[in-house]
Amino acid sequence: MVKAVAVLTGSEGVKGTIFFTQEGDGPTTVTGSVTGLKEGLHGFHVHALGDTTNGCMSTGPHFNPAGHVHGAPEDEIRHAGDLGNVTAGADGVANINVTDCHVSNICSLYKHITLSFFLILCFSTVHLTLITILNGRSPLLDQIQLLAVLLSSTVTLMILARVDMSLARALETLVRVLLAESSGSRAKMSSPPANVVQIWEPFQNADLQSLF
């Protein structure tokens, strides 16, 4: 079983927790709740990038590996990240319980790539951002601050999932290498250590579409 946990935080007291679970190649179940929302409908979807430095503008389009058009959750042809709307009541709480086959692609990717989930609030719409680590395809590698955030969230996810921490340790090493390179310190290293290379090497020439 593949599991992921999204700890949600946002402006004006918005917070919550979302759980993603997938058994084998079956559909993904998304459950949880978000509090502090304005009453009414809020869009709920996964974005392609994990860059939240400029709010929604820097998170990229909806996660859409198949290149489909936007659609409702019940549509056969739609973005994999389109999860429809969640409804917040008068108390500002939106309870979520969704079973979806398209978003299963995201959880299947967890078998190959470390995933972290973050929530941002943009124009009163709940956006779920997917951070993917794929060498040559993510802006994270040249943004040390975001990579450090990824490390922190990766450790959290691994602790929650009770899995091996070796990837988190390798990411920590990579952060240290990049910091040394950027500061020009005496500890500067010409190349990352072998364990880091082993993480990125399988994805150097990977076709994202082939992972699904």
UniProtKB/TrEMBL annotation:
UniProt cross-references to PROSITE patterns, sorted A to Z: SOD_CU_ZN_1 (PS00087)
Residue ranges crossing the lipid bilayer per the database entry: 113-134, 140-161
Role noted for this protein: Destroys radicals which are normally produced within the cells and which are toxic to biological systems.
Keywords annotated in UniProt: Antioxidant, Copper, Membrane, Transmembrane, Transmembrane helix
Database matches in Gene3D superfamilies: Superoxide dismutase, copper/zinc binding domain
Superoxide dismutase copper/zinc binding domain ranges (all copies): 14-104
Reactions it catalyzes: 2 superoxide + 2 H(+) = H2O2 + O2
UniProt-recorded name of the protein: superoxide dismutase
One GO molecular-function entry: superoxide dismutase activity
Alphabetical list of InterPro entries matching this protein: SOD-like_Cu/Zn_dom_sf, SOD_Cu/Zn_/chaperone, SOD_Cu/Zn_BS, SOD_Cu_Zn_dom
EC number: 1.15.1.1
Top-level taxon of the source organism: Eukaryota
Species per Swiss-Prot/TrEMBL record: Aegilops tauschii subsp. strangulata
SUPFAM superfamilies referenced in this protein's UniProt entry, alphabetically: Cu,Zn superoxide dismutase-like
Family: Belongs to the Cu-Zn superoxide dismutase family.
Cofactor needs: Cu cation; Zn(2+)
